[in-house]
Amino acid sequence: MVALPLQGSCKSQRACLAACHQPVGGVTSSGILPCPEWRSKYSLRPRGPGQQRLMAQQRAGGVVRAAVAAPEAPAATSTAPDTKSLYMPLQNGSDVRGVAVEGVPGEKQTLNATVAYFMGCGLAEQLAQRQGVSPQSLRVSIGRDPRISGPLLAAALAAGLTSKGVTVARFGYATTPAMFMSTIIQGYEYDAAVMITASHLPYNRNGFKFFTKEGGYEKKDISKLLTLAAQEHDAENAPNTAADARYRDEAFVLSSALHSEPGLIEQVDFMPVYSAHLRDIIKKGIDHPDHYEQPLKGFKIIVDAGNGSGGFLASDVLAPLGADTSGSQFLDPDGWFPNHVPNPEDKEAMIAGVRAVNTSRADLGIVVDTDVDRSAVVAGNGTPINSNRYIALMSYITLRKYPGTTIVTDSVTSNGLTEFIDSLGGKHFRYKRGYKNVIGKGVELNGEGVQTELMMETSGHGAMKENYYLDDGTYSASQIVIIMVKRALEGLGKDIYSSLLKDLKEPMESSEFRLKLKGDNFKEDGQKILADFHSWVQGGASGAEGWNLEKENHEGWRVSIEEGEGKRGWALLRASLHDPLLVLNVESDVRGGSCEIVRQVVSFFEENADESTVDSSKLYQGCSIEMVRH
Ligand SMILES: O=P(O)(O)OC[C@H]1O[C@H](O)[C@H](O)[C@@H](O)[C@@H]1O
User: For 27-36, what is each residue's pLDDT tens digit?
Assistant: First the structure.
């Protein structure tokens, strides 16, 4: 940590804080540094009953923990927000997400160091309650992606945990699946792991993903954790007002971090352990008859990590196994993501991956997202294999190992994928959007005795039962590497696209429209529109001729559209998982068919939907359709 020179004298707490904290490199939220003078003057003084209770507990527990002192809280006013209102909106399904860096117009910071600190306190309490043990016996690992707010949030989270006596292992750069594996791999087996990431979202966002050896946190676990964090915050009487308290907030946390018992925080170099684990999977999977240790000799495999956490895949997994990884790109972590969004769902990211494969004449390209729980691949002939194609390829691999198994996917998969899985003897269970839903359904089906080995979303989240139901972008990509090498060993060549996916029927056109729900009651408004859409189709309204509601449907309304008048395909109207949006997905097997289908949906909106509740104007651009087949 860099020590900034003190500016001026430091007579009061406020003056000290003003003197001791200044922006670095224009990035204020991650550049706030503590002031030793301020620290010695204020930070060891217990304040308020919550603080005194904590200190008493610490003494009773015999553990020297973070000596935390809240800076002067602003006088309570009737307008001070309820602390819970700072925490609860950070829930994003089964993750925590927020704006962690100021500076983007219209995006107020919501996830700062204070919040992270109290989330650490809350997590300690939650884990202790769940396991029926004292926090002092718990060990938690923390890793992060390269976002610029990561170091501060990690320090704050660690300080919160250690203030309760939890031992913390800081990994530095890590991936989401590696964090989960740190609860599993022998010799590590942390009680919980936290990944600090906001996946593919812009540089100013950040968030937390939580794991225990049972898997990722569910929605209810996150709600409970946020509630506990708010209670911890209240107990310490910490500032909970907005922007002008931010500097004090961060100072508060950083001073506590500096007073954490150093013995409770250790730096652990875990990624080499996880890389060795992946190398073993590939070695065992290929079981090369001649060079077991270097089964990728003679293969050129490149990685595009988009400057996220995935660069290790090239240098620490593929290269040591003998692969030529030259031509890999954007491997160095850079939290500004200067090259492209690290996201295999993103067109630019896939174009970059395709270009790299073509330029370097690689046999395979692997594109991963920031925290590497998702991936896509690029075949040696430059064909992007993401979305339906990736699921199809993973289905092929899975069905070879587990004939007849059920495969769960999200709701927006193509009809051609269902036919492909059927033709391989598998069963396709098309479920809902959201990887947690998809994986959860797989767990449930297995529990009911329905063998379900693969759960995969078009976003690139893919999980296998054989791998702890963990969505791991490197595990999926490893399966593709294994099949490519095995087929080559069988004399079938290195090609994985034309040979394995030749029977996958793809739509001619595919498109997605995201329509904004405008009102405060967007959930109810959305549900009403969906109900009206159902009646409109079911009643055979003019405009919905040849449309049939699909029977096996778990989300929104999916209609299959019969051939005629230049149409054939399907449409799905559903509510977005997280955002105030209705989403329309359309696929057509006929050139120009999507436009026809969208026109029909437009007539539904014109007749049925109130413009004050939904903005359907995007549908009027309905003919800018992405061509799937080239
Ligand atoms: O419902 P949507 O707005 O399309 O978003 C749904 C998507 O949200 C996130 O990105 C999740 O990681 C995905 O698993 C999910 O599918």
Answer: 223 222 232 3
